[in-house]
Amino acid sequence: MFGLSALALVWAGAALGAECDRAGFAAARQGQGPAVLCIEGAKGPVRLSVEIADTEAERERGLMGRRDLPPGTGMIFVYPTPRRVAFWMHDTPLPLDMLFIDAAGRIESLKENARPYDDTPIWSAGPVLYVLEIAGGQATALGLSPGQRVAPLD
C-alpha cells in the first residue's frame, strides 16, 4: 500500500512539473499572456490559467466589473513582501473564492464564495505573498484547501 501511495505522489509531482514552469510564470509577469499555475489538490493536480496583478494599480482593480470567470481561470495578486492583506468585493458582480498563499507557495487560508458587492474586509489569517481569486465554488469543486502547494510562483 505504501508503494502505491509513494508512486502516486511521484506521479502527481511529475505531472505538476510538466504542466507548470517558472519561465512561463516569469514571462506572464512581464505581460506576455496568462500564467499557468498548478496546485496539488486533494482530487489530483489542478491547472489554472491566471492573469497576474503585480502592480498597485492592477491589484486595486483586480476583478472588479467582471461578469464572467470561467472554470480553470483566475487572477493572482503578487505582493513585493509578505504581509497580512484584506480584500473586498466592491464592484465585483460574481462570487469568488480567495486563496491566500504564503511565501513558501502554500495555501495559508481561504475564503469561499465571497459575496458580490460586499465591502466587508476579508483578511488573510497571516502574512501572505500572493492571493489567488477563482470563481466562487471552485475551491471545493477542485479539492483545494490550506496546506496545499501552488507552483510556480517565482
Question: TL;DR of this structure?
Answer:
With 154 residues, this protein is α+β, with helices and mostly antiparallel strands. The protein has a single domain (2-151), classed as Protein of unknown function DUF192 (Jelly Rolls, Sandwich), CATH 2.60.120.1140. 24% of the residues lie in helices and 36% in strands.
Can you characterise this structure?
The chain is an alpha+beta fold and 154 residues long. The chain has a single domain (2-151), classed as Jelly Rolls. The chain contains 4 helices and 9 strands; from the N terminus they run H-H-E-E-H-E-E-E-E-E-E-H-E. The strands form 2 sheets. The chain has a 7-stranded mixed β-sheet with strand order 6-5-8-3-2-1-9. Strands 4-7 form a two-stranded antiparallel ribbon. The model is unreliable at 1-18 (pLDDT under 50).
